[in-house]
Automatic annotation (TrEMBL):
Listed Pfam families: ABC_tran (PF00005), BPD_transp_1 (PF00528), oligo_HPY (PF08352), OppC_N (PF12911)
Keyword presence, Methyltransferase: no
Entry keywords, A to Z: ATP-binding, Cell membrane, Membrane, Nucleotide-binding, Transmembrane, Transmembrane helix, Transport
Sequence ranges assigned to domain ABC transporter in this UniProt record: 347-594, 616-861
Name of this chain's protein: ABC-type glutathione transport system ATPase component/ABC-type dipeptide/oligopeptide/nickel transport system permease subunit
Transmembrane segments: 21-45, 95-117, 124-148, 154-175, 265-286
Location (main, coarse): membrane
InterPro entries linked to this entry: AAA+_ATPase (IPR003593), ABC_Ni/Peptide_Import (IPR050388), ABC_transporter-like_ATP-bd (IPR003439), ABC_transporter-like_CS (IPR017871), MetI-like (IPR000515), MetI-like_sf (IPR035906), Oligopep_ABC_C (IPR013563), OppC_N (IPR025966)
Entry similarity comment: Belongs to the binding-protein-dependent transport system permease family.
Domain (ABC transmembrane type-1) ranges: 89-287
Membrane topology of the entry: Multi-pass membrane protein; Peripheral membrane protein
Organism (species): Aeromicrobium panaciterrae
Amino acid sequence: MASIAKKFVPTIVRQSHGLQRFMLLLGFAIIAAFLFIAIFAPWLAPYNFNADRTADGVVFGTQQAPSASHWFGTTVGGTDVLSRVIYGTRTAVEVILLAVLLSGIIGVPLGLVSGYLGGWLDRILVLVMDALYAFPSLLLAIVVAIVLSGGNSSAFGGIMAAAISITVVFIPQYFRVIRNATIAVKVEPYVDSARVVGVRTPRILRKHIFSNVSQSLPVIGTLNASEAILTLAGLGFLGFGIEPSAAAEWGYDLNKAMPDASSGIWWTGVFPGLAIVLIVLGATLVGESLNDILNPLLRNRGTDTTSADEAEIAHKFEEVTGAEDAAVEVRTAPAAADPKRVVALSLNNLEVNFQTDGGQVHAVNGVTFDVAPGEVVAVVGESGSGKSVSSRAILGLLPSSAEVGGSVTLGNRELLGMSEDKLRPIRGDQVSMVFQEPSTALNPVYTVGWQIVEGLQAHTKISKKDARKRAVELLEMVGMPDSEHRVDYYPHQLSGGQKQRVVIAMAIACEPDVIIADEPTTALDVTVQAAILELLLSLRDRLGTAIVLITHNMGVVADMADRVVVMYRGNVVESAPSRELFASPKHPYTRALLDAVPHLGRENGPGLVDANELVLKVDDLVVEFPGRFGQPTFRAVDHVSLEVRKGEVLGLVGESGSGKSTIGRTAVGLQQPTSGTIDVSGNRISGLSDRELRPYRSRFGFVFQDPASSLNPRMSIGQCIAEPLHVQTEMTQKEVDAKVRSLLESVELGGSYAERFPHELSGGQRQRVSLARALSLDPDLLIADEPTSALDVSVQARVLELFTELQHRLQFACLFISHDLAVVDTLANRVAVMQDGKLVEIGPREQVLGNPQEEYTKRLIAAVPVPDPVEQRRRREERGHLLTDIS
């Protein structure tokens, strides 16, 4: 215990600051003191807790005040109060440890099993636990104590009975916390990834569920210790505690001290009461401090531009431009400002540094650019370039660890250095922001109308009725269908595109001079993206608003931007009008960025494969999900049939909700079909249970969309890749290690990465690990579900190159699911188009993407922005009749 504390306590103390550090140290000091007293009670106590000290001059029936012989005085029975407090400490610590340990041993497994398996077992356990939780804790403990009072008068028996009484109170708490956490974790992609390779339920619960929900247990246990002390004292005070002759107990002593209080004999009750207060205080301080330290949302995190993401981008940059030029050409001097130019927002030599545990991190270095009224300036660059940090610095939205220098002016006013009180009327009124992820930007517990009204009333004197009317008008302006009713919708009732429109409505509510749009179309379908871009441009034209567009999508830049600012490693490396930059990029990084962008129809993609053996056959597949609260059944996949042969890539495209991911999950047994059949390598897998599917799991692999969530954060990279080998093969550990190193080499990472953890890798590196894991068993079929949608363009390009190399070499069949038609065009031999659960078109790549027959396919292709401003302008003019307003 001492060695663990020696390592653990300094670590968490280093992570805390100021008052939090003082509270943590005070809590640990109090708890350490009580533990010391409990362990050495027989040597510290001057007398036995029940020893009659009348021989010291105490007359029976009276109490001796604190003195040199009895520091805390004596009780009415002549026993030494100090000795009883010391022995009472041992009793309290023993009961607390037993109660917390027993309740965790029982409550945690029940919560895991209930949350993961669900069904009738979950309903029964929830009913039982809710019934126990409904009882007042002290009353429940009394009932259990009465039931257990039949017998053992020994010290251990009494302590165990008291611990069990308190354990019954705590079990529902552990159960509820772990069950709810398990329900959230079991839908994570890394759990599905384990199921795909045939990992059995006990291992999933232990390695994938418990390891990721157990971080809250130290906090729960510490805070429950406080409740255990008070419950034990309450039992003793009411006479339901430990037999007085078996052990000293503070609650019993308080009960006996009550008659003394009216006689001015204070010491018999003060010292036991003070002991209870101190130990509760110590446990509470430690518990609350651990909660702040272990909660990742409360940590003070800076922005590290030397992260693995940037390292990978830099590596790609150096591959294209030459390592010698990378450091030299990192900054391009800004063009001289036109003195006649009217500027809405100007950044001049903006610097942002973050203070971290590892020292100072330079996130933004001397960034200079401006935007005029009615102009769209795109700030582009990949993750870690500093573009989002720059935008947040404008409105003072950076964390306290940031140090900001330079100048940011709105018109003639300097924004940097403004107090919160002065910035508040500017935010949302004169400068507004469209955040990248609308699901997190909108408050889930308020209607979207309420959130728009809140912004209006914060900046204008308007009645609630008029504000609601204005909110409806704003929703109509951004193209929200049925805005009169949807103004009362909650965010979860809207689609991704609709939520993005709400965020834009909030941004334009006060007709701001400047809108900062931070990745406003990331992860949106191409048709929804096109509608959002049309909306922003119409707002620019109608209101004369200046727009700062932050993105890494060069097609969006070509579609919208008047001027482009390119950032790399916190520096502006190039700034030019949009047409000039795309036609003749000056900086090597800009050229590398543009070269990495996939371009629909620009290159000759792969042709048809020979008549190889059939690997995946989907025949008349139907997948339905039951409706809730009286809603009808939802049909996600509607009579779909398709085939994929050895060495072939079939691109499955369509908008969100079209059913393409459901087909992929059904193909590997993660979702059961309602009807129809699925065969993999000639084996019928549809309708099989997890147990029956296990022998076939080695035939297919799965690469998930989000590389960050598809790898267990508590497992090393080597453990993640090795898991399928442990589950499906009889290989020795030495053979497994060699295979893991070989797989890492095949995805160009190297064997040294086996010891790292997912958070230490960039997005592209994590996706390579996911690919290595999926291919570890040499599968016949690979399902790739949006595997590059979360990656920067240069990282995406390298992952796609690697994917193509492996596919040509290993000749696995692949169902490649994506809404990015340009990516599919570079990879797929054939393309299948999904709409509303139905297969509307399927055929060779060049036919479906080059000469589509269905109007829906034509609309999808027309909505794809291309990285060419001239071509994009022409396409914008021609596609108007093809695009519809996507709700």
